[in-house]
Specification:
This protein is of the alpha/beta class. The protein is built from 16 helices and 29 strands.
Length: 561
């Protein structure tokens, strides 16, 4: 995952030391209990670049070497060497992502293979080993992301809407890659070598595959990060939406023994991952980014055995017999005993001409480092009057040549925390315009300016230069795909005590009970986080919702026939 963990220092020497961790005799003896031993010969390839996630391989007496190679250069580069007591594998053993490395035998001897099923059992049962493996995997993933040679190269325009969508997906998934500007000499060379033209941009180039006009969905399929059926025909729990509520539900569901599948239409993190800084989350007095928080949560869910798939949009939910059927965008249908809807709410678009056209090409709904770097050194504007807009303005001020904060209301402190108001008003890089709205957008292929006016069109129109417009207004629940589940007048989902007698059909009479906490009008379907009617719309509250909803899932499954 694209994140920074305090347990692992970013200093290259310490990172390398963690990545090359060697099991002591007692740890090795314990790990070997989950393995199958075999003799291997020098030169033997244990797994190759592009292979589906396979076994954890522990060296007994053999010496193994991991190599990475670039699709642009016909050469191999040594990544790591594993001697006795060390192990080959990285985070893809948890994510299921195709291998970025080739591992072959440098010196003959004994190895111990831990199959995926045994590895998940080891991770669930052996706390010390689980932590040691996880730390090494995270360090290796970070080293892979820093490597000069990359198995995956994306050639494209970072300023285009599709380019930004790809970069967002890759960053949130922590996929090792190299981004190459399609208009640069290196980009032209990469296209020529792959037999592509600028009409094929964006393109993904990797060993064994060239993907022209690649999308996050097609790239996810190729990397093996899309949905794959689990070993069982019916899951215990499907969680739809991988924001804080969905991630918490996946962590608690998987850690408590439920076969848990987590699906998200974009990438793990949800709206929280768009936040540049969260300072009021318990236990983090110095704050952390939303992407950092949600990446940690995703690793936790994977550690406990949850299956995470993205981008993986859900288009329908229906009940069939004693279980629920979730239908994906591609028509795949997944069966589950229980479902938690945690699809959250999205920021609204402004009713301004060319908004859709310029989204991703100057208009953004996130203000992470990725977006901030895209507008560095240029003037930007932020629309919104709540905490997300305030945090975005402060973060962008570190990169941009001035930030204009556009607030429709007359009082900046009406919906924004006092500590943010104080910082914003004291920052000379930020200009606050209250009682103001965006009247028009300017620019050809990219945004280069906006026109502002008084609220409801009052007052003169004033144009400002603007290379990035960051929108953080309102919230629309992501429930348009739901049918059969009662929604309130704003599209949010009422649960348990909020449901009236008229909301509950004959099925509830047959069950002889009232809805459980977080249960919707459909038995066995629960709602958590921002999508729930009475939720607090805060990260901490969403995490609590996800964890609490799992408790009700256990109650439901215990009561189910």
């Amino acid at each position: 995952m694209a994140t920074s963990f305090p347990e692992i220092n970013d200093h290259p020497e310490e990172l390398a030391a963690v990545a090359a961790f060697r099991l002591d005799d007692s740890q090795l003896s314990l790990a070997v209990r989950y393995s199958i031993s075999e003799e291997v010969s020098a030169g033997e390839v244990l797994f190759d670049i592009g292979d589906e996630s396979g076994d954890l391989v522990i060296s007994g007496t053999a010496t193994l070497e991991a190599l990475c190679s670039s699709p642009a250069e016909a050469r191999e580069q040594s990544f790591m060497t594993y001697g006795p007591g060390q192990f080959a594998g990285e985070l893809n053993l948890l994510t299921g992502q195709r291998s970025s490395l080739q591992v072959r035998v440098a010196a003959p001897g004994t190895i111990h293979r831990v199959t995926p099923e045994s590895f998940r059992r080891l991770m669930a049962q052996e706390t010390e080993l689980s932590d040691l493996f996880l730390r090494a995997f995270l360090a290796r993933r970070r080293l892979l992301r820093q490597a000069t040679d990359q198995t995956l190269r994306i050639v494209g325009d970072a300023d285009s809407a599709m380019g930004m969508a790809l970069r967002t997906f890759i960053a949130r998934q922590g996929v090792p890659h190299l981004w190459v500007d399609g208009a640069s000499p290196a980009g032209e060379d990469a296209l020529r070598a792959a037999g592509l033209t600028t009409a094929d941009l964006p393109a993904a180039v990797m060993p064994g595959a060239i993907l022209p006009q690649v999308t996050p969905g097609t790239l996810s399929q190729r990397l093996n990060l899309a949905y794959r059926r689990t070993g069982r025909g019916t899951s215990d729990l499907i969680v739809v939406g991988a924001g804080p509520a969905g991630l918490a539900a996946a962590v608690y569901g998987a850690s408590e023994g439920l076969e848990t599948v987590l699906l998200d239409a974009v990438a793990t993190g949800g709206q929280a991952a768009t936040s540049a800084r969260i300072e009021n989350y318990l236990g983090f007095p110095f704050g952390l980014s939303g992407a950092d928080l949600t990446a940690r949560a995703a690793v936790q869910a994977l550690k406990f055995g949850a299956h995470i798939a993205s981008p993986c949009g859900v288009v329908a939910l229906e009940r069939e017999g004693g279980s629920h059927l979730v239908t994906l965008v591609d028509g795949t249908r997944i069966r589950s005993r229980a479902v938690i809807v945690a699809t959250g709410a999205a920021y609204r678009a402004l009713s301004v001409d060319r908004w859709t056209e310029l989204t991703g090409a100057g208009i953004y709904y996130a203000a992470t480092d990725l977006e901030a770097q895209a507008v560095a050194g240029r003037p930007v504007a932020v629309v919104g009057g709540a905490n997300s807009a305030g945090q975005a303005a402060l973060h962008l001020a570190q990169y941009a040549d001035g930030v204009t904060l556009i607030v429709r209301g007359d009082d900046l402190g009406a919906r924004m925390s006092a500590y943010l108001v104080e910082r914003i008003t004291a920052d000379p890089r930020i200009t606050v315009r209250t009682g103001t709205e965006v009247a028009a957008l300017h620019g050809d292929a990219r945004l280069d300016g906006v026109s502002l006016t008084g609220r409801a069109g009052g007052g003169p129109v004033h144009r400002i230069d603007c290379s990035g417009l960051f929108c953080f207004i309102g919230a629309q629940p992501a429930t348009s795909w739901l049918s059969g589940v009662v929604l309130d007048e704003n599209g949010f989902i009422p649960t348990d005590r909020e449901l009236t007698r008229d909301d509950l059909d004959e099925r509830w009479k047959d069950l002889g009970r009232a809805p459980l906490p977080y249960e919707t009008s459909v038995p066995g379907v629960f709602a958590a986080g921002d999508v729930r009617s009475s939720s607090m719309k805060r990260v901490a509250a969403a995490v609590g919702d996800g964890a609490s909803a799992v408790r009700s899932v256990h109650q439901f499954l215990a009561l189910a026939p």
